[in-house]
User: Which sequence fits this backbone?
């Protein structure tokens, strides 16, 4: 207890030197919390967006469907199994048929994924209702990324060419009935959505689908022959991998930030011991044991971290709160990365993360304070009193 | 005055390594100090005065011989035990005052009592009394940087005396002070010696200090050349 009292007094007495270290350490602390909040916020938002826009409560894939291999699309379709078609009728699931096709905006060919979905579905947020209306034309829906890439606008007509189930080419004009904006590129990039029944007719795949999206909250996922259930763990694996790699990247930044701050504390400790030799000698002359003095200096150094956590709480809390409330705008162009990133990320600060970081800062600061302080244990008090220890 | 033996030094030798050989700072010293003495070790620079005080104060170990301090044989004490003896029974006054710069006068004087785990109330009483002895009760909130050299040394005396130690070791306490301040602090120490029966041992070559001593031990080249009482 005495060491803590003396350490606080010495630290506050050291004035600007202490506060500079405390500020640097608190800056590192706040930056680490902020960055981890951004990654966590991105993770949460990305999964929420993907759930709402793309994967719902999970998907049943045709056993041959591989989204990373377009060649599988020729065979990856089948009649809706009865176990699931009932769910589709009850609005608990919606089927999607996928085929390869080409569009010719301005006469240039562009290979796309042509997807058919029920215009009345409300399983995912895709505004499929826009495809309802004049049934004499094929009403299509595209995302902003696709619209940007093809320079297509609402009501534009564009030629679509596809192959039916027998491999026969066919073509028709489609009308861009709507352009939707989403943070999920997985339903936007190079994709054209049209009504499911229309696509089934066009490809002669009546009653067939490639995958089925389940409504959120569906817990019953029976085994269906020929179809494979893909839960969130599988569907989010890509974003999980990205978040993990970003977290590792973030860890490097944390280490650099923390190392810089700790270097300042270490430096201060070394200088402090060098400058305060007489004081150390005086402590020993007055009856402190050397290890008591080592402990005093270690506590002094470690108290930087306590003060920095307090300082971070004072100036960091309102700042982090403001960013969490107003969001952190991602730079323009992130839309084109092919990752699910919101235009604004709202950082999510976990109490566990903050406490863990505070603990790490405190422990590491104590260690870097202790290392130079050990030198005191080997000091001769007579030389310390004369300030002759080097 | 109780004239019991408080320090007994037998055949004390201290050697320091120097280059490939050794330098003998103290050579076969035999001395005893009685309770309440106001004595000084005098001699030219390098004669071994400070080394002798350091060994008496358990800050350094002899190469040979022994010091028995208040019944504690220095060679038998561990580093921790030596620290405890210093904490309870010894006070130090240094040439450069060695005050803790970030502490106030009050806190500097209070420090030895913190180590003795005294209550806040007892500490306050003792500190105010000690500061009254040295005439600094009006400066309790000042920091060392705000004090003159004489005032700093008076704080150092208060800090050394606040726990009422049996022995105070003063190493060149007047070396940085002018004549007026030197006399002032010497009178203060003399008064405390008489009132509290504290044993004072000085290391000095200052004539002003020597003029206050009641026993003068002259060291030349690490040996006691003279040990004489001074009658005033």
Assistant:
């Amino acid at each position: 207890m005495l060491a803590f009292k003396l350490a606080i007094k010495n630290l506050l007495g050291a004035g600007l030197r202490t506060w500079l270290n405390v500020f640097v350490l608190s800056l590192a602390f706040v930056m680490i919390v902020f960055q981890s909040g951004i990654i966590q916020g991105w993770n949460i938002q990305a999964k929420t967006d993907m759930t709402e826009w793309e994967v719902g409560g999970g998907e049943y894939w045709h056993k041959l469907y591989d989204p990373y291999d377009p060649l599988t699309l020729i065979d990856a379709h089948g009649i809706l199994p009865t176990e699931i078609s009932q769910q589709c009728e009850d609005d608990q699931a919606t089927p999607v048929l996928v085929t390869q096709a080409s569009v010719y905006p301005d006469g240039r060919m562009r290979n796309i994924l042509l997807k058919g979905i029920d215009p009345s579905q409300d399983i995912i947020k895709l505004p499929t209702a826009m495809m309802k209306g004049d049934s004499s034309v094929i009403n299509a829906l595209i995302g902003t990324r696709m619209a940007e890439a093809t320079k297509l606008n609402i009501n534009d007509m564009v030629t679509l060419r596809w192959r039916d189930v027998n491999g026969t080419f066919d073509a028709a004009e489609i009308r861009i009935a709507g352009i939707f904006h989403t943070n999920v590129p997985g339903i936007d990039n190079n994709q054209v959505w049209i009504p499911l029944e229309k696509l089934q007719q066009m490809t002669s795949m009546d009653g067939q689908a490639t995958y089925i999206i389940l409504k959120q909250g569906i817990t019953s996922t029976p085994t269906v022959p020929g179809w494979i259930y893909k839960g969130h763990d599988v569907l989010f694996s890509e974003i999980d991998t990205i978040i993990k790699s970003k977290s590792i990247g973030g860890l490097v930044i944390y280490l650099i930030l923390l190392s810089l701050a700790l270097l300042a504390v270490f430096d201060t400790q070394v200088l402090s011991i060098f400058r305060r030799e007489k004081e150390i000698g005086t402590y020993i002359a007055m009856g402190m044991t050397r290890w008591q003095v080592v402990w005093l200096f270690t506590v002094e150094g470690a108290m930087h971290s306590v003060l920095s956590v307090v300082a971070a709480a004072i100036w960091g809390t309102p700042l982090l709160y403001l960013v969490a409330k107003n969001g952190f705008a991602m730079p323009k162009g992130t839309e084109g990365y092919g990752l699910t990133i919101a235009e604004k990320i709202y950082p999510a600060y976990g109490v566990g993360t903050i406490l863990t970081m505070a603990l790490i800062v405190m422990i590491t600061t104590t260690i870097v304070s202790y290392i130079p302080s050990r030198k005191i244990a080997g000091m001769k008090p007579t030389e310390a009193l004369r300030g002759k220890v080097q | 005055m109780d004239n019991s033996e408080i320090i007994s030094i037998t055949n004390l030798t201290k050697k320091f390594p120097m280059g490939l050989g050794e330098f003998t700072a103290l050579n076969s010293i035999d001395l005893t100090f009685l309770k309440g003495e106001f004595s000084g070790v005098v001699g030219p620079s390098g004669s071994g005065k400070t080394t002798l005080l350091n060994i008496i104060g358990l800050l350094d170990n002899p190469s040979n011989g022994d010091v028995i301090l208040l019944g504690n044989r220095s060679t038998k004490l561990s580093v921790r035990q030596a620290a405890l003896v210093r904490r309870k029974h010894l006070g130090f006054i240094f040439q450069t005052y060695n005050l803790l710069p970030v502490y106030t006068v009050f806190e500097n004087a209070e420090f030895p009592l913190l180590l003795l785990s005294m209550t806040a109330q007892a500490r306050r009483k003792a500190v105010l009394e000690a500061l009254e002895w040295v005439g600094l009760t009006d400066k309790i909130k000042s920091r060392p940087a705000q004090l003159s050299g004489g005032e700093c040394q008076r704080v150092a005396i208060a800090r050394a005396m606040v726990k009422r130690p049996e022995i105070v070791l003063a190493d060149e306490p007047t070396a940085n002070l002018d004549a007026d301040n030197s006399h002032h602090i010497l009178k203060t120490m003399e008064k405390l010696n008489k009132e509290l029966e504290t044993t004072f041992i000085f290391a000095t070559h200052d004539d002003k200090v020597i003029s206050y001593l009641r026993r003068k031990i002259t060291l030349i080249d690490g040996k006691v050349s003279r040990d004489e009482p001074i009658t005033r």
